[in-house]
Amino acid sequence: MNSQSELRKLTYLTFRNIKLYFKDKMTFLVSLITPIILLILFILFLKSTYEDSILSIVESFNLDQNLIDAFTGGWLFSSVLATSCITVAFCSGMMVIDKINKANVDFLVSPVKKSTLQISYVLANLFSTLIIAFSLLVIGMIYLACVGFYITFVDFLLIVFSIVITSLFGTILANIIWTFTRTQGVVSGVCTLVSALYGFICGAYIPINTMGEGVQGFVSLLPGTYATILFRQGFLNGVLDEMGKTLPAEMTTGIADGFDVNMSFFGYDVSTLGLILVISISTIVLLGIFLLINNLKKRQKI
């Protein structure tokens, strides 16, 4: 009976946090800054740049424009989703908002376990991120259906997995930081910093191969980079296979390498399974850190 009661409390608190996030229009708009910036950059600058890069690789081969549009569109939405799963997770958390509004004081004197409250924050944060991420995925699928759709069912499952695991990674990381945060200024600063920098350091804004050697080594150590490559493979494997029917293998490999569909760790190629393991293990490690921090804070209070 007690477990059922805690489950009801958890469900109520989770939905309460989700509703509060989507009710606050300003917080919601801040979460969408990164995808909006990417869409504007793509429309104004990046699409033609990517097309020119592809055409310089294929040289005299006559490549169908639909393939080029499908590739550039897939690259765009893989970037949008790879960054949004992290930036939205950082901007959609209600833990700090409750601290600022002193709502956490009310919860502390209510018949709600602290663990139930903490889990509700994490779940609400995760579900809010997933709602926005899957909404962006629907927009991407509609766009690709219009310009050129080459995503297989297996690739689609890879994209869905990438969204879920990256959102979970970003949610846990954000909640670790929010555990030590109590002011709106810090929240705004962290959200702004993550929104501005994450796309660069995970290879979403510009291909990793165009970065300096030292920067490439640094980003290859970050779990977010591996998540970005997973998105790249989900969106671009199909169109690259289709390009392979027209182009020599070395050209399609050159395109894949140049646009970060393939990943190497200090000269060693990383398989799709390797990418999945890196981001999954990193998420598990973060979860362990989050649980440890909350356990230690609980003991300190006792």
Give the SSE layout:
Elements: H1 2-23, H2 25-31, H3 33-58, H4 65-91, H5 95-100, H6 103-108, H7 114-147, H8 153-178, H9 184-201, H10 213-219, H11 223-243, H12 249-258, E1 263-265, E2 268-270, H13 272-301
Antiparallel strand pairs: 1-2
Helix pairs in contact: 1-7, 2-4, 3-4, 4-7, 4-8, 4-9, 4-11, 7-8, 8-11, 8-13, 11-13
Description:
By secondary structure, this protein is mainly alpha-helical. Helix content is 79%, strand content 2%. It has a two-stranded antiparallel ribbon. A hairpin with a 2-residue loop joins strand 1 (263-265) and strand 2 (268-270). The longest helix is centred in the middle third of the chain and has 34 residues, at 114-147. The protein is elongated.
